[in-house]
Design brief:
By secondary structure, this protein is an alpha+beta fold. It has nine helices and seven strands, in the order ααααααβαβαβββαββ. It has a domain of 118 residues: DNA-binding pseudobarrel domain (At1g16640 B3 domain).
Length: 227
């Protein structure tokens, strides 16, 4: 019995000592502070939220005295968007394909035969080639690729202006791109001015180093011929 009482007394003393150590270390106060910190919002986060609201509002950004005396910088982003809209509008107008004309196989064959006959009549005093018109030549892109062998043999080795002379001697300046071997700027104006459509055939006669005489054979002439 005495041993049991001694054991209980020893355990009670050990508990008292542990409580005393906890009081000394103030661990319970520390744990309470941790719990309180986790339940309350951070003051730093509040300040950041208010700052972000101020930036998003109509309040102008603060500028230093040195920068405040300088003129406002242009809004390049707005200018770019305006420019992009203009390009889209003009590009959309240029690519209005609602009035496209699609040639039949008979119309294409007729125009090609007529162009070959004209080529024989013109003779071989000047280099000649025939170019049937496709949609990419007369609508949308307005790019005219020239025969590679002809370009390598007769045309300039660098970009130059090439003049197109129609059957009434009106002249149109076009930009010849030597690397791509085709006509770029100016070809669109020529195509529109002469109302070229899919299936037409053009006979190009090189009368000078950078000048073509151009003859147009209309695919629609098929319906005017005696077939």
């Amino acid at each position: 019995m005495a041993e049991a009482i001694s054991y209980e007394e020893q355990r009670r003393r050990q508990v008292e000592q542990n409580k005393q150590k906890l009081e000394e270390l103030r661990l319970h106060h520390l744990s309470a502070a941790v719990r309180e910190a986790t339940t309350k919002p951070s003051p730093t986060k509040k300040r950041k939220t208010r700052a972000s609201r101020d930036v998003a509002g109509d309040v102008p950004p603060r500028r230093s005295g040195r920068l405040a005396s300088l003129p406002e910088q242009p809004k390049y982003r707005d200018e770019f968007h305006d420019f992009e809209k203009k390009i889209r509008r003009s590009y959309g107008k240029r690519r209005d394909l609602s009035n496209r004309v699609y040639a039949t196989d008979e119309e294409r064959a007729y125009a090609m035969d007529a162009a070959q006959e004209l080529e024989e009549k013109i003779g071989s005093d000047h280099p000649i080639f025939i170019k049937p018109m496709l949609q990419s030549h007369v609508t949308g892109g307005f790019w005219l690729g020239l025969p590679t062998h002809f370009s390598r043999k007769y045309l300039p080795k660098r970009d130059e202006t090439i003049v197109l002379v129609d059957e009434v001697d009106d002249e149109f300046d076009t930009l010849y791109l030597a690397n791509k071997k085709g006509l770029s700027g100016g070809w669109r104006a020529f195509s529109i001015a002469h109302k070229l459509v899919d299936g037409d055939c053009l006979v190009f006669q090189l009368i000078r180093r950078t000048k073509f005489k151009v003859y147009i054979i209309r695919a629609s002439s098929y319906h005017e011929s005696d077939n």
